[in-house]
Amino acid sequence: KMSGGLLCRSGSWASEWFVLSPEYLVSFASRTSAKVKICVSLAAITAVQAEEKADFCISYALQLGKAACDKVQKLFLRANDDDEMQRWISAINEAQEQRRRDRYFLPLSVAEEIIAEQRQLTEEEAAESKRQKAAASTIRRELACARIAAALSSTSDCLSTGLLQLRNWVQYQKDQEEAEAAEAAEAARAEYAAAEAEAAAAETQRLEILERFASILCRALQRSMIVGLSHLGVSNRCCYRSVLLCRAIQRGQSARAAARHEALSKTMQML
Hints:
Layout: E1 2-10, E2 12-20, E3 24-28, E4 36-41, E5 45-50, E6 55-61, E7 72-78, H1 82-104, H2 108-232, H3 236-270
Antiparallel strand pairs: 1-2, 1-7, 2-3, 3-4, 5-6, 6-7
Helix pairs in contact: 2-3
């Protein structure tokens, strides 16, 4: 690294402060100025040539990546004397050479040190990564355990609630079935009772018809017997006994009908 005052020709000669770094040649208006006037990359410098007296010329490409035969820009500088000029030319050439060496060549010892440092850094990074992964795994495992515990607690509460709801639902269904069965039984009893009542009414009506028919038939038989027996010369006593026999038959039929009617009534009451 080198710095110093040089004259720069830009139309006319002007004094500027130049600083040579490992990468650039930079000029300022003065030593205390912070504003850069010229900045030339060492990679863009194509030639440094001594001129007459203490003058020298720096040729550099206007754009990096251009071929050496392309158009270049020239920077004309003047040192205080010939020795200072040679020092600047040597410093620029050495800086370019050092840049190329640092860029493309590396001593074996330096390379070994760099490799060792990289290996150590890689091992440290691997150890740190492993430690972080282990810590992250532990945290994930703890979180998973906490979530499982919370889920189990919630599941237990939900299970209890679900079982209670299921029990209530089963009881409700059972009550509904019992109510439906009771309604169906009541409807069946009512239907059976209506059928029995209808059958009893029909039987009563039939018995009444039979009784009327038997009464009519009995009276007709009595008259026929009386008339017939009188014509046949049968005594009145025999005729009277025949009439009594017909009446007994009629009463027997009435008693059987009454017994059937009473049994039917008892059956209806049991239902």
